[in-house]
Amino acid sequence: MAKLSSDLLTLEIRFRSFEDRWVVYDILWLWDGTPILNDAILKRHNPYWAARQPGGIHANEHRADFFISTIEGVLANGEAAYTETTDPDVLLAIYPGSPFPFLPSHYRLVYESEETIQRREARERLKAEIGHLPDDRFTLLLFVDTYNFRDCFAYSGDGLTLHMNVTRAELEKFCADLRTEYFAFKRQHPVDQASIEDLGEEDARKLPLFGPEPGNTAQEGTTHPGKLQSPEAP
Predict the structure, then answer these.
(1) Which of 5, 43, 185, 201 has the fewest beta carbons closer than 10 A?
(2) Confidence band of 234 (pLDDT split at 50, 70, 90)
């Protein structure tokens, strides 16, 4: 499982299954390894919702994963971006730096030691020379609509948001782990083949991370032949 941590706070994303052209996720917010969400308030009224992990957020994306390509894009170009799963709504937004709450700070610098000034200026020179640094900061916001919760029967636009601030090195490792998990998932399930059948190969190749993992010759669906069954209606 791919995990991104800041102190004891952790975001975990798991690829659970591939059902009727949908990539199915379990997403967990953890504190010191324990789910933050109370499982008793999450939907479990039928097999579709009951398959979720304890305290896990259920999400589906049609045809392919978009979390990885979004994270890779922000890491590469330094521009904020977001992606939102098709159903149910889970939105991941990533911002370079620490811009939250997206308004001018109430604080003003009143003193900075000479040692701190020297460290800051040395880092600024290194940043200008090299560009990406391992300790660059990124802010992640993960929003989940209340539709994931018990007795909520429609999307509301309301919900909960997880806020994390991590380094480039931490985000790069999370993205690499998630990428490895996704290609392992595709070796078990016919993700690309389903897109080819529906879209044709030319358009299917436009989807993120189409094809086998670079350097791995195993074909998708060869570990356990995937079934393109329909999930039960929510």
Answers:
(1) 201
(2) low
